[in-house]
UniProtKB/TrEMBL annotation:
The lineage of its organism: Bacteria, Bacillati, Actinomycetota, Actinomycetes, Mycobacteriales. Keywords: Cell membrane, Lipid biosynthesis, Lipid metabolism, Membrane, Phospholipid biosynthesis, Phospholipid metabolism, Repeat, Transferase, Transmembrane, Transmembrane helix. It is a multi-pass membrane protein. NCBIfam families: bac_cardiolipin. It comes from Corynebacterium poyangense. This is Cardiolipin synthase.
Length: 477
């Protein structure tokens, strides 16, 4: 009777407030194995986070609105086509963040050089350094950044560091990094900690996936790269010569205030300490920079309106000629999948760049389960060769048209990034960042192999079964 009671209750309550695919996956888990499925749902399946996080998000929204209150949706003197202006307005309404000037200093595509560039920026700090990276380890590769942070502390600079607890703890050196950071004088915290013995426990499936650096409120870096050796230091990766391919964009100007606000919110969430953020100044562009217009779009479980997903879907619908999607994990929900395939049917050339073999078994096969419908719609799927993991995350729409758009940041195009992770994305409706991402796409195109529908149709029945089974697990949220 208990078994049937659980199933009857689940049918009436699980679908509330969630997507059909997610409801189906959770119901399947509960109906087939209620002893396991129900506890998992109660632990991770709720679409709501604890009251404290909701309260903090509400306070954060008010702080963003207060700091950015006098800033228009986009800079005066810059006009945008109606469709782009509507996306900018939507992002502003959902997150409070306006589109502002963003002075661009280039996209770093060399993994080690990106770390050295961050270290150089830290060495120029005069007031403070705020660093927030999802996965953080102090290893031989990242030592250049930590040494720069240590030198900053020695100069009297305030250094704050945030990194995700669960995201970092499985990598070598985690259990020593806290002592090393404290010894260096760095003020550090873990985000979304699972430390019940300290009275700190969060939903275990929620992660803070953001990756960015802010120096003195003037120079910033953001993108897809974690603070770890590009092999991620696991025995399997080292044995298979697996290495990550990432990008970080270096920026300055008023856009840095938007990043500072996000850091201040996340720092307050973990420490209760308030960081004062000054409104953006209309300072002239820095030398050797290229002006862009950009809008930071934060997202996460505290946002009930899914600003990340709405932005990505809107940009896909905006494309008229060419659409480039680059993501290590492409597991779209119904709305994004429909938008991408509809773009093909409208005559848009859609190019999807993914790894030939993803670093995670479940993700690799869940992603593959969408290839059939994508290929049949006309999507050009390009496989970045193994053993490399293409971890860059960006979108470019109509790069050579009159109304181009681009997105770059920490967000994948999957259920987790759209619903469970705290992410940041930079939407760029104007500027050189769009052309640089287009040039990067040409580089990826030169080394990738296109997957044809004919080749895909020859996959084995076993592969089809595994792909579809893993597809069900991807919707469990």
């Amino acid at each position: 009777m208990l078994d049937y009671g659980i199933k009857i209750i689940a049918v009436g309550f699980v679908p509330e407030g969630r997507r059909p695919s997610s409801s189906t996956a959770w119901l399947l888990a509960i109906l087939l194995i209620p002893i396991v499925g129900l506890p998992l749902f109660l632990l991770m399946g709720s679409p709501y986070i604890n009251r404290r996080r909701h309260r903090i998000q509400q306070e954060a929204t008010l702080m963003i609105e207060d700091v950015q209150a006098d800033v228009p949706d986009h800079p005066q003197g810059h006009s945008f086509q109606a469709e782009i202006a509507s996306i900018l307005h939507m992002n502003r309404r959902l997150t409070g963040m306006p589109a502002v000037r963003c002075d661009h200093h280039g996209i770093h595509t060399d993994y080690d050089e990106a770390l050295r560039a961050m270290a150089r920026a830290i060495d120029r700090a005069k007031k403070y350094v705020h660093l927030q990276i999802y996965i953080t380890t102090w290893d031989d590769t990242t030592d250049v950044v930590f040494q720069a942070l240590s030198r900053a502390v020695d100069r009297g600079i305030k250094v704050r560091l945030l990194f995700d607890h669960v995201g970092s703890w499985k990598y070598p050196g985690y259990w020593k990094i806290g002592r090393r950071l404290t010894a260096a004088g760095i003020d550090w915290r873990v985000m979304l900690p699972l430390q019940p013995w300290k009275g700190r426990f969060r939903r275990p499936d929620l992660r803070n996936h953001r990756k960015f650096l802010v120096v003195d409120g003037q120079r910033a870096f953001m993108g897809s790269q974690n603070l770890i050796d590009r092999s991620y230091l696991t025995r399997t990766n080292v044995r298979n010569h697996r290495q990550w391919v990432d990008i970080m964009t270096e920026i300055s100007g008023p856009i840095v205030t938007s990043l500072e606000l996000i850091f201040a919110i996340d720092w307050y969430s973990e420490t209760g300490e308030t960081i004062n953020v000054q409104p953006p100044r209309n300072a002239p562009p820095l030398p050797h920079s290229t002006p862009n217009i950009a809008q930071l779009v934060p997202s996460g479980p505290g946002y009930t309106t899914e600003p990340n997903l709405r932005m990505f879907t809107s940009v896909v619908h905006h494309a008229k000629e060419r659409l480039v999607l680059c993501s290590p994990y492409f597991i779209p929900d119904e709305s994004l999948l429909e938008a991408v395939t509809s773009a093909c049917y409208r005559g848009v050339r859609v190019e999807l760049f993914v790894s030939e073999k993803a670093d995670q078994f479940v993700v690799h096969h869940a992603q593959s389960s969408y290839y059939q419908v994508l290929l049949e719609a006309g999507v050009h799927i390009y496989l970045f060769p193994r053993p490399f993991v293409l971890h860059s995350k960006y979108v470019v729409a109509d790069p050579t048209g009159d109304n181009p758009l681009a997105i770059i940041g920490s967000s994948n195009m999957d259920f987790r990034s759209f619903g469970l992770n705290y992410e940041i994305s930079l939407m760029v409706p104007q500027g050189s960042m769009i052309s640089e991402l287009t040039e990067l796409t040409d580089t990826y195109l030169g080394v990738s192999q296109e997957l044809s529908l004919e080749t895909w149709n020859r996959r084995s029945l076993v592969r089809r079964y595994i792909d579809n089974a893993m597809k069900l697990t991807s919707a469990l949220q």
